[in-house]
Amino acid sequence: MTGLSVALALSATCAFSALAAAPKPDAVLKNKSIEARIFLDDGIKADAALAADCLTEGEKWLDKNAAEAAASRKEDPQFFKNGGWDFERKYSIRSVVADRYVSILRNDYMDTHGAHPNSDVNTILWDRTANKRISIRPFFTETADGGPTMKAMVKAVIASLKAEKKKRDTSETATDEWFKGIEPTLLKIGAVTLAPSTEADMSSGLTFHYPPYAVGPYAEGEYVAFVPWETLKPYLTAEGARVFGGARPKGDAEAQ
User: What's the predicted TM-score (pTM) here?
Assistant: First the structure.
């Protein structure tokens, strides 16, 4: 076999291996207007109740976007000459705390043939004991809108974002105008997860996840703000004190 033949054979083998290794979607919707996919990571699929919950939500998302794509195609068919919209949603586990609280990242990709594709990020906190979604309320003595806990969180979130913008050399957008959407309420402070910890089964604090445009221009991409548990210690319930501890692992910031 010649060198060229060997190279071609290796290239074909690598291409086949990459194709074989590509994960298979857990739900797909494809027609002339849209191709959309849902992916659940292996950790989620290992929990039947959690997998069913995510898949039910994901399929509703597929149907909603398919309806919007069909309506858009009917109104402006010229924008679909090169194919339909392309959507993808991925559910992945960020942390498991106390073998009970599962933090999940929900990442969306949307291409509607605009100037550029868009992305979004949201989060889910799952209680394995109750088999349902919960909020972070059980970890804090109070979470009233504009109350001391939420004000402390907002202050810490903005400080973290300013530090990250300084690191990225984008401090010119570390302004009140870009942070005005971060309000001292659970619904408007940002999508939250329990950060992993150097101590097993514990959380080192809260991470807040912001998609492009949320706290900076599109070109700056996503941001993640970290609030260490020590900052929130005065506001913790007994359950909060039980699950928070340790430090943020090295490399966690880079992984987000």
Answer: 0.89
